[in-house]
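Hi L., both proteins are below.
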Amino acid sequence: MFSFSRRTFGVLAFAGAVAFTTGAFAADKINVGILSLTSHSPSIIAEAKGYFTEQDLEVEFISFQAAQPMAVAIASGDVDFGMTAISGGLISLADKGVIKIIGGALQETPEIEGQKIIVSKAAHDAGVTTPAALKGRSFGITTTGSSFHYMAHKIADKEGFDRAEIHLKPLQKVPAVIAALKSGQIDAWSIVPNIAGPLTKGPEVVEIGKIADYIDNYQVTTVFTSTANAEGKQELVKRFLAGLSRGIADYNAALVDKSMSEEDIAAIVAMIHKYIYSDQPIDKADPRIRAGAMRINENAVLSLASVEDQLEWFKSEGLVPEGITMDKLVDTSFVETR
């Protein structure tokens, strides 16, 4: 028969107290939406380096092929956080009160090589050697109301021709746009440098310009979540942004500023490779991941001016409800804005 002494009871009571304080509260499980683009690396880095774990978050990544389906998944609760371009679908869902932008991510900055305007070799040979020559030409986009749609119209606006004179071709997924451009089924596209670079090294695609010449300080992607999270789970949102911000800092140090050692950069690239270009061996994926990485805003700072410009464009095209306001779209309580 087993008997308890006071000493035994005290030890067991202490052990029980430790177990209660350290293990009784399980980490919050969250789903994070990503696209297979290097610009989605900060959350991958944060997960791999334990930054989310330190915030008591257990992360599962859900992959998407375009921005709009990710917004729908956030609205439905299948995904908790996303980091991608503002789409018409996202804005319409914000108007319904189910989604909020809570931070900034990828942004065009003057000192960093940004998104390229590229054309098929066939179009280039036919005289499309500058963005001004895109009048009357086809331009690949994923979906109507996507960032690609916005960029195409900003080119038309600045070059002084009617938006309807750039013929948009919705192809749903980035790989489909790439295939159509390389085969000459579409004339033009615009994309981040780590995708544009490898394309223009081949014989089928030529660079003719850059988006920075057409859009000032473009807030290319934003961080967003459900309104239910933003209004009812503020601490969860803050913990996610805290972990993400550390991932952003490492991403910029490794791939943009290159202030890390080569050994540390290689380790970061290996983390990213688990989700980005994972269908390729690391020796082929490594240069693609590193090539032309663009800056992600430190601490997820958000450019309100750029978001507002995008919102007004969506309204001008009749792609979102006319009455939607910035207050409905953006919750400014979580990060610094400018």
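That was the first. Here is the second:
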Amino acid sequence: MKYYTLTNSTNLKEIGYFIQTIGSIDANGQDVKGINSRVKLNQFTFPSFVPDLRFKLENKAILTDVISTSNIHAKGFLISNGFKNLLFDFNIIEHKFYPSSVIANNISYDYYWLHLVKNNFNGIDFSNSTFYNTDIFGSRLTRITISSYDDYIEQCKRISNLNRIVVTKLVLTESFLSMNYDLFFFPYIHDFVIASEELISTIKKHKISGLTWEVTDF
């Protein structure tokens, strides 16, 4: 089975401007540091509050089915209702859809924040995966052998604060593969959301705009 890394598009011909939404203020002009601000979202847990997910499109940006967002450090996508409806047919890791809006030319458009959550490494075959110690620029320094999640944590403690451990070949366990997830990620070691071939085919078929993908090695 093929898998793909799935990210927001940076093609300016398609999206007009990257990042597509204004970062310093919410759509209503308030500071993003409010008690229910989107900056408080994370990739490990669902919020205990209803997040304020009002966005304002940058002047040069184009409305797309998936919009790149400012001031969100969690895993997920800001998506149109049409794309949301397509996703109901797919198996996604633990997630929620939060109502959102995007203001463009003084008109408010309904969107949804697809919030993906994972707080563990269950599903990774560490012994057969390939890891590297990289510098602050992402350049590979040394290959590292990691046998388990606990081993990963210990080795992270030993490296320089400016370095990080990244996975270059990710091998999934049979039990995880049997779950047949179409959209998932792993915290820390991988920067991308991962999509199945079936989901990518649907994105292509329905011409969902605002996304880019690349086949990856598992």
